[in-house]
Specification:
This protein is of the alpha+beta class and 342 residues long. Helix content is 30%, strand content 19%. Strand 10 and strand 11 form a beta hairpin. Helix 4 crosses helix 5.
Length: 342
């Protein structure tokens, strides 16, 4: 802080999530301060003299006015350097949809150079597009109708235009309102300012889609949770279905079965869940296994489930009606000979 003590701010520029403050001292020496707030960083502003700086305060700015203001900064990144620091950081950042000078062709070129990456991964790369965070990633993809697992090689130019236009629109709405509000005013239940929590978004951190009310899936891309509606954001038939389905260990809506059908859903589950699901299907009253009494599973397994039938009279009656209770036959080898047990 001693390097800029007594200097005046001559410029402030934002690129995505990065702030660049330019200071000049009386000798016209220029110093650049690079700030990245992280998850919890902020400027705390008040009238001078202001509160005492805390251990987390990185820098304190004071205005030169008749009634001066004090701004105390807490941030993840707070680095001082020269103009070369600004140029270096700017070159590493992608176009910012909030800026008038943003060149979307840089984003398009970045996508084309990484065909195997998913678009959900690239949207979180600040070198691809600056300023898009985890919440906006899911909402922008939803509004564009693009599945997060779709490969960059499969993104058409029309889809890219929709992706960029929605990025501009949603970020501008957030900038003007001060809140992350992604839902279209036409689809909102009331004035946007009156919306609360999940009512402001379509899929992010929601259990059901705001538009079609079908289940929302969530999984991890780039170490952050992404959300998508498999009904509104469908993958092409030639594309591989996302591994998200297989990773859904806790799926209260049975979304995997709804999307893939019973067989594929079972294939995507962990083995222990697959076996339990197969057993439940195997011994349903009208299943093929139940009707085929030659199968060993049909002869032995139903009796194990019927041990405590007295506590479940309804199930006991159902088993009787389907011929699964009252008689069983199995071969047991004893002393080298086979005998029948009734």
């Amino acid at each position: 802080a001693s390097k800029i003590h007594g200097s005046r701010v001559v410029g402030v520029e934002a690129i995505g999530k990065n702030l660049f403050y330019t200071f000049q001292n009386d000798a016209e020496h220029t110093t650049v301060l690079h700030i990245h707030f992280g998850m919890a960083g902020r400027f705390t502003i008040g009238k001078a003299p202001g509160p005492d700086p805390r251990s987390t305060t990185r820098i304190q700015l004071v205005t030169r006015e008749e009634t001066p203001l004090v701004a105390q900064l807490t941030a993840m990144t707070c680095v001082l350097g020269g103009e070369e620091l600004y140029k270096e950081k700017k070159e590493r950042l992608g176009p910012d949809p909030l800026r008038d000078d943003a060149d979307k062709e840089r984003f398009w070129s970045f996508i084309q150079r990484r065909p195997k990456r998913s678009i959900g991964y690239l949207l979180m790369d600040q070198a691809a597009i600056a300023g898009v965070g985890n919440t906006y990633r899911s909402e922008i993809l939803f509004c564009a109708g693009i599945h997060p697992d779709k490969k960059a090689a499969d993104i058409t130019r029309a889809e890219f235009e929709s992706l960029w236009n929605n990025s501009v629109e949603l970020l501008q709405r957030g900038f003007q309102s001060g809140y992350i509000i992604t839902i279209n005013p036409v689809e909102a239940a009331g004035p946007l300012a009156a919306l609360k929590g999940g009512e402001k978004r379509y899929v992010y951190n929601r259990e059901t889609c705001k538009r079609c009310h079908k289940p929302v899936l969530s999984w991890s891309i780039s170490n952050r949770t992404v959300y998508a509606c498999e009904s509104c954001q469908q993958l092409d038939e030639k594309a591989q279905f996302p591994a998200a389905i297989a990773r859904r260990d806790n799926d209260p809506h049975n979304t995997a079965a709804w999307l893939l059908g019973e067989n594929k859903a079972a294939a995507g589950r962990p083995k222990k869940h697959t076996r339990k699901r197969e057993n439940r299907q195997k011994f349903e009253p009208n299943s093929e296994v139940t009707r085929d009494r030659t199968l060993s599973a049909a002869r032995t397994k139903p009796m194990k489930r019927a041990k405590d039938m007295d506590a479940r009279p309804t199930q006991k009656e159902q088993l009787k009606q389907n011929g699964r209770l009252g008689f069983r036959e199995r071969k047991v080898k004893q002393n080298g000979a086979a005998r029948k047990v009734q």
